[in-house]
Automatic annotation (TrEMBL):
Matches recorded under Pfam families: fn3, I-set, Y_phosphatase
Organism (species): Amphimedon queenslandica (Sponge)
Name of protein: Protein-tyrosine-phosphatase
PROSITE patterns membership: FN3, IG_LIKE, TYR_PHOSPHATASE_PTP
Domain Tyrosine-protein phosphatase per the UniProt entry, residue ranges: 444-537
Length: 537
């Protein structure tokens, strides 16, 4: 900033003016600086190193050979004119859960002053009531206490000492309450079972429902229903008081408590009946008494019954979610480990309905399911259930069927645009191959020239290890070793055991913020992303 002043009046000089003392003071910090300007004609000075949008006072004191004159009356100046900031351009969601949305934003590109606070407001997108308003000095904020699967209008604006500019508004939706994917029932005795399930972050409670049915020629068909509620910080619970003569179906749901209102998510598909009657194995012991003449005197027989405790089957291998086009085969291949003599039975359920062995479904003896030729009606959730006398274990997989010309079909072909894929008709395939081979395979070389030949200096050895290979959403998309994210164990997240996930860490993305690009489509993957989120913060 340039400061200039008038010369001292002739009748007040008391001799020639030989210089000036210029003093400027930061009003906020009360810090003063004095500059000695020699020469009576030097009446202009450039102040540098000032703090933007800060008020200063400036005073000039002339002097001559004999004495120093009085200071001129102080004048207040501002290093840069303060006004309202421009609107915030980038308001994005960093993470969301069923009851929380984390937002981040960049400071205004033209602040027009020191930003003293950011104001945040939010309400339901369909609401006409007042906004909830809060503020922060950070460029991020976590909005909590929201309703699951609900759209909210969220606004942010910046304040200077002059005031705010207009709101920047965006509509964002909270996540749906997830359906628990891992759920098993283990029989403890004739009247009790133990339920175990995968945890859902920030859940308030879990509800296990059970229903039993039994029929007999001597009595009417009877049905017993019930439920048990367990706190959100546990992943197992006991259910007692069951009737050993009944067969039971079990399902579980997750709930979130928001300001005293409980929001319950979708139940899992019911796990088929657990038989509570014990398995009896009989053996006969013969006692033979022999006389001195080696003749058999008597034979005594006694039968003893013992209860052999059955062992729950273990699902060792299970497929990830599958995307396929119409007309293709899809094999849900499973591997179940069986211990003991209690051989399990296998069942599949499609969107809650039992899958039967017919012309479109092949139920294999090892529990695997083959869809001979998928159609759009086959899409949805498939739950596999293995059941023996010890209890029931289950897992589910989602099948997405892409109809020709749909978004899913374009995605499978690597085309995310809205243009229709140029499919090759069957009767034109020979011509397509011939053209590709023409001129020394020039067509095929051009088509596949951009693919990685495997000679890249970037290695992918970690992603292709047996334990990590299952974590890749697509077999042909593996993260480079030097880009992968390593997950370190965290207290309270014992279920996040993977040291690798198909995700890339991009340093200094968008200049100020770092970014994680990832592929995940399972609950276990979401748990790992939750851990990544903690590392990232």
């Amino acid at each position: 900033m340039t400061v200039s002043w008038d010369e001292v009046p002739c009748n007040g000089r008391n001799g020639p003016i030989t210089g000036y003392y210029l003093t400027y003071t930061n009003i906020t910090s009360n810090t003063s600086y004095t500059v000695n300007i020699t020469g009576g004609d030097n009446r202009i000075y450039n102040l540098t190193g000032l703090i933007p949008y800060t008020n200063y006072t400036v005073s000039i004191m002339p002097y001559n050979y004999n004495m120093t004159g009085p200071a001129r009356q102080e004048m207040q100046i501002t290093a840069k004119s303060i006004s309202r900031p421009v609107v915030i351009a980038d308001l994005i969601v960093h993470a969301r859960t069923p009851t929380k949305i984390n937002i981040v934003w960049y400071p205004p590109t033209i602040p027009n002053g020191i930003i003293i606070v950011y104001e945040i407001r939010y309400r339901g997108s369909t609401s006409t009531g007042p906004y909830n308003i809060t503020n922060t000095t950070n460029t991020y904020y976590s909005i909590v206490g929201l309703m699951p699967n609900t759209s909210y209008t969220i606004g942010v604006r910046a304040y200077t000492s002059i005031g705010p500019r207009e709101w920047t508004n965006r509509d964002y939706t909270t996540a749906k309450i997830p359906v628990i994917e891992i759920f098993s029932i283990t029989k403890l005795n004739f009247t009790a079972v133990r339920a175990e399930w995968g945890s859902v972050p920030e859940a308030s409670l879990y509800t296990i429902y059970y229903e039993s049915t039994s029929s007999s020629s001597r009595k009417k068909r009877q049905v017993e229903t019930g439920m048990r509620i367990f706190p959100g910080d546990t992943t197992e619970g006991l259910i007692g008081g069951l009737d050993p003569n009944l067969n039971y179906l079990f399902s579980i749901s997750t709930s979130f408590n928001v300001n005293g209102i409980v929001y319950e998510g979708e139940r899992t598909q019911p796990i088929p009946g657990v038989t509570l009657n014990p398995t009896i194995v009989s053996s006969t012991l013969s006692i033979i008494t022999v006389t001195g003449s080696l003749t058999i005197d008597t034979i005594q027989e006694a039968t003893y019954s013992t209860v052999m405790k059955p062992i729950l089957p273990v699902i060792e291998e299970f497929p990830d979610d599958v995307r396929s086009e119409e007309g293709h085969q899809v094999l849900f291949e499973v591997k179940v480990k069986v211990r003991g003599n209690s051989k399990p039975s296998f069942n599949w359920y499609h969107n809650g309905e039992p899958v039967t062995d017919d012309y479109t479904h092949e139920l294999r003896g090892d529990g695997s399911l083959l869809l001979v030729s998928v159609e759009e009606k086959h899409k949805g959730t498939y739950r596999f259930v293995a059941n023996n006398d010890a209890g029931t274990v289950s897992q589910q997989v989602v099948l997405t069927v892409a109809v020709e010309g749909s978004d899913e079909s374009r995605l499978l072909h690597g085309d995310s645009s809205s243009a229709k894929i140029g499919m090759i008709p069957v009767d034109k395939f020979g011509e397509f191959v011939a053209k590709g081979h023409a001129k020394g395979n020039e067509g095929f070389r051009n088509q596949f020239g951009m693919l990685d030949s495997g000679e890249s200096e970037h290695t992918v050895t970690v992603g292709l290890t047996p334990s990590n290979k299952l974590l890749n959403r697509f077999a042909n998309i593996v993260v480079y070793d030097d880009n992968r994210i390593t997950l370190r164990p965290m207290s309270g997240h014992k279920d996040c055991t993977n040291e690798y996930i198909n995700a890339c860490f991009i340093k200094d993305y968008s200049n100020q913020y770092q970014y994680i690009a990832t592929q995940v489509d399972s609950l276990n993957g979401l748990k790992d992303i939750h851990v990544i989120d903690h590392h990232f913060q």
